[in-house]
Structures are given as C-alpha cells and as structure tokens.
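Field reference: sequence -> structure
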Amino acid sequence: MRTYLDCESGFIEKAQWMPNCWINVECPDDDDFDFLTKKLKVPESFLEDIADADERPRTETEENWLLTILRIPMQSNQQDIPFITVPIGIITNDKIIVSVCYHKTELIPDFILHARRKGTTVNNKLDLILRMIHSSAVWFLKYLKQINNEVASAEKKLENSIRNEDLLRLMKLQKTLVYFKTSIRGNEVMIGRLRNIFQNTSYLNKELLEDVVIELKQAYDTVNIYSDILTGTMNASASIISNNVNAIMKRMTSLSITLMIPTLIASFYGMNVDIHLEDFPYAFFFIILISAILSAGIFICFKKIRWF
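Structure field:
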C-alpha cells in the first residue's frame, strides 16, 4: 500500500504522485513494486535489501539514487519476544523521496499525524531522514517504558515463585533490549554517515541534527540502564527461585519428620509381640495421645528454629 504526502504542506495526502511528494510504501505488493521500479526507476536491489529483516543501518548509492536504511521498533506478533526492530529504507534522489517498509508499524502513522498536528514541513530529503530517526528514538523510549513496567510486574511475581516461566519472561525482555541497543547504535552510526554525505550542502540542518543526536543518545543510555537493571534482576530472580525451592524442601522435610514419630510408634505397636497394654481398655487412645504429644513437641521445636 502506498500513499502520496505533500512535504511542503504538512504531509497532506494526495491522490497521485507529483514532484516534492513523499511516497510512503508499507507492506508493498506487486503493484507497488512495479510502480517503484518501472515508473520511478528505483533500483530493484534497493528494494531487495530493505526486504532483508536482518539488514543493518547503512547507506548506499547507485547512480543518482541514495538508499538510507534505518532500524525502527515495533511490537512483535511472536510469542518468544514482545518487541523487535525492522528495517525501513528511504530512497531518494534530487526529486523523489520514497520510504519502504515491509512491516506495518505504529511509528509511521504516528509520525505523519504528529507532523500534521504541528504543521511540520520537510524541506528536503535529509530533513525527512533526520525526522524519521528522531521519531524512531521517541518510539524506542516508549517501548522501553513498557518493558520497564513488565520487568516491575515480573519482579512481583518472582518473589514467591518457583516456576521457570517467570524467569523466561525476563529473558525475552533481555533479548528485546539487545535488539534495541544494536539498532539504536546502528542509527547513531548512520547519523555520522549522513553528516559526512551532506556536510557541504544546504540540506544539513544543524539544529535538527543536534536534536536527533541528543534523542538517540538518551534512548541508548536508557537501554543500557534498563539492560543493567534487568541483568541484575535476572540474577537475583534465579537466586530467589532457588531459595524458594529450598524453603519448600525444608518445610516438606520438617513435615516428614513430624509425621515419622506417630508412624514409628504405630509400627512398634503393630508388631506381633506383647505390648504390655493388652489389658488396658484405653490403650488405643493412649497411644494416639502419646503420638500427638510427641508430634506437637517436634512441630514446636521446628517452629522455633523457623523450619515451618
């Protein structure tokens, strides 16, 4: 699906493509592919590179075309990880700006709505790329807050837990942070490459560039902080689970010892020998009482040393 957005009027959607329009393509189909390659003459190799889910942030030129690949965050449909990062390619020349992403994300619609609300205008291709990187940093921070909330929720469950599932939940979040950290770092490196490419041109907006660098640095520092916290939490959680198991085993052992006394007495009196209480009419109740007293005494002793 593709949309045509007028960069000079706050991303107002147009019915058809015209010069100085941003062509936003999400989940491209065959019709989109033909439009880009046959009508706009976009190199097919660029589209193939963007389709690679593991493509790292980088730039590439072919004739008068410039490909800029970024990594942006999105919620994952996979059960083994809550958030992932995916590549988005921005393909530009002197007159054409095309963004291509093979995934439907929250970032791009939010980016467009925010620009419309603020009345933002994009003056050139570098301006759009920098604003897209800035938006990606904002969404990294949004998802990091959600991850932090999930870590706090998992910590509460782990206090009395002995299940591996709770620890595996933290491991999935740790994997997400690794993806985020790698992607943010790659986008930071991309900023340096773009600065070198456009440093002698009128496209470079130093104030916007500085804002993007600051936002990315904040996202990168936040990832590092949350990663360190999560690593410490996982180590502590593993110890907590081990301690909880030990506590349960201690209680079970104490209970077994407490029940062993009446079992032992019953075993003695169950032997086929004289027990010297044959003529006592309340022998059975007497034996039960002695067993209960001994068990209660052992229970009290264990209670004092906190084995129960």
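Note: Residues 245-304 form one domain.
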